[in-house]
Structures are given as structure tokens and as C-alpha cells.
Amino acid sequence: MRAKSAQWGNSIAVRVPRSVAETIDLKPGEDLDIVAVPGGLNIRRPTAPRYPSMSLADMVAEMDRLGPDGRPEIVDWGPDRGDEIVDDSR
């Protein structure tokens, strides 16, 4: 399928035809990776997460590494009230 490039501000844009977008379930606003390859471009969805994910254990280890100043202050919000009370005996 052919498409034309067009000026869009200081950039050059390529419009993705609806049939192609529907085939790959591409939605407006999605992040895409664009890679220059010999003779053209590869456009694809990112394969790696945008931000590295950390487990709770990783976050606690980082707080411990930073020392006492790395831990957040503990806040006493008072007794539970209303819908946040969970009855674990059920």
C-alpha cells in the first residue's frame, strides 16, 4: 500500500490508512518506535516498557540502601471508618 508524506510543522508525517490501522488495531495517540533502516523505515509498537518496572522488594531495598533518610515518614491516619474496613474472617 502506498502513502504520501506531508509537512506537519517542522516534521514530516505519514498518514496510516484506516484499513491498515484496523488490521493492526492501531489507535490514535499510541506510542510507536520509528527506526531508520537501509532504504526505509520500520514503524512498530515499543517492545520494552517505557519505564522500568520495580517490584516492592526492589523499592524497599533501594530505601534501605539510601539509609534512614530514604524511608518515607509514617503517617497515622487514625482508625478505619466506613467502606475501607475489611472483614478477613469471611
Keywords:
90 residues; alpha+beta; two-stranded antiparallel ribbon; 2 helices; 20% strand
Short description:
The protein has 90 residues and is of the alpha+beta class.
Describe the secondary structure blueprint for this structure:
Blueprint: E1 5-8, E2 11-14, H1 18-24, E3 33-37, E4 40-44, H2 56-66
Antiparallel strand pairs: 1-2, 3-4
- Biggest sheet character: 2 strands, antiparallel
Low-confidence stretches: none
SSE order, one letter for each helix or strand? EEHEEH
- Calculate the mean pLDDT score and round it: 86
- Helix/strand-derived category reads alpha+beta
What proportion strand? 15-25%
Shape annotation: elongated
What is the β-strand count? 4
Our count of helices gives 2
Could you estimate the helical fraction of the residues in percent?
Answer: 10-25%
**In what order do the strands lie side by side in the largest sheet?**
1-2
Q: How would you describe the overall organization of this protein?
A:
By secondary structure, the protein is of the alpha+beta class. It has helices spanning 18-24, 56-66; strands at residues 5-8, 11-14, 33-37, 40-44. A hairpin with a 2-residue loop joins strand 1 (5-8) and strand 2 (11-14).
